[in-house]
Amino acid sequence: MHYHLIGICGTAMASLAGMLQARGHKVTGSDQNVYPPMSTQLEELGIEVLTGYAAENADIGADCTVVGNAISRGNPELEEVLNRKLFYRSQAEIVKEEFIRGRRSLVIAGTHGKTTTTSIATWVAEVGGLDPSFLVGGIVQNFGASFRVTDSDFFVIEGDEYDTAYFDKKPKFMHYLPEIAIVNNVEFDHADIYRDLQEIKFQFSRLMNLVPSNGRLIVGVDSPVAREVLDEMSGKLHTNIETFGTSDDAKWQARYIDFSGDVTRFTVFKDGHSWGEFETNLIGEFNVRNCLAVIIAADAWGISKEKMQDAFHKFKSVKRRVEIRGIERGVTVIDDFAHHPTAVEETLKALKTKYKDKRLIAVFEPRSWSSRLAVFQEPYTKAFSYADYVVIAGVYNTSKASELGKVLDVGELVEDIKLQGKPAMSFPDADSIVEHLAPELKDGDVVAIMSNGGFGGIHEKVLDVLKS
Question: Of 86, 393, 400, 454, which has the highest C-beta tally within 10 A?
Answer without folding.
Answer: 393
